[in-house]
Amino acid sequence: MTLLVNHDDAQIGLDEETKDSAQIRALVFVRDRGIVVLWIALIIAFSIWASPYFGTWDNAVLIANAAAVAALYAAGVGVGVMSGSLDISIPGVAALAGVVCGKLVSSQGSVWLGIVVALLVGVTFGIINGLIALRGYNPLIITIGTLSVTSGLASVVAGGYAIPGLTQLTFMGSSRYLGIPAPVWIVMVLYVVLTLFITQTRHGLRIMAVGGNMEAVRRSGIHSNVYRVLGFAIGSFCAALGGLVSTAVATEADPSASPGIIFTALTAVALSGVALTGGRGSLPRVLVGALILATISNALTIKGIQPYWSTVVTGLLLLFALGMESSVKAAVERRLMNAASASAHSGRQ
């Protein structure tokens, strides 16, 4: 009789473990693929609601183009967060890169010199942020300071006014290649390169590891400081590239650092399920997050709804994403503990 009871208890434990495993897989799917499902659902809903204008190829190109600049900034924020540091200086770096390029193009007539110097300026400020962070200062405070510095320098370089007439940059702004706007091509190349770098190279994997637990990486004999600085540098490079594309689209370099840049980028990152504590995330999902924001804005515009409602929806999505991240993380941890407990109980039987 005792053996029968033990067998039944073991079977119940096994059933509970199987149930917990299924629930964990479902939660992980929601965390990792939920944003794609959400985007598809929005496309279907808006195709019906905003018919017949929303569900067309031309409108899809408009959405992709609208999402492109935000996706560039989101890539910078995403890499920074995954490497363990939230970089707030991105709007300032973007503005400074844009005016540096604009100044060189208008005064020297050299487009490629302006682009290269602007990108180097971005990387330089990323390295500076990283080196200061290594001294133990809070990255958030550091990058707020850098935001102020770069915003001020952008106004100094531009003389306080926008630099107009930069038509030489249209090849990376309003031009189209195979019917696709240039910013979309730039985003595709950037995301493919960064995704391959982070997921398929030793240095990229170490950046993620540093974001998850820098002390553990250091104790394993890896120079964690190098990879933390590299994370900042990549983020600032993306910010500078975003500034260049914004300048090319507008054909003028604006020295003002728009706070909406970091808000939109952070929303796209949070929607993608990137852990704000670092060490986990996916750049393709960050791209989908940027596309979701552009999709919502586009649909509201088609229906003639005031654009400030898009800001409201964006804020609500950010709060929803943060809540979902916290809830899913807690649920996964709880299920894992239950599974471990059930397995241990079964083993004792």
From TrEMBL:
Key words of the record: Cell inner membrane, Cell membrane, Membrane, Transmembrane, Transmembrane helix, Transport
Primary location class: membrane
Protein's membrane topology: Multi-pass membrane protein
Record InterPro entries: ABC_transp_permease
The keyword Transmembrane appears for this protein: yes
Family annotation (Pfam families): BPD_transp_2 (PF02653)
Subcellular location(s) of the protein: Cell membrane
Name the UniProt record assigns to this protein: ABC transporter permease
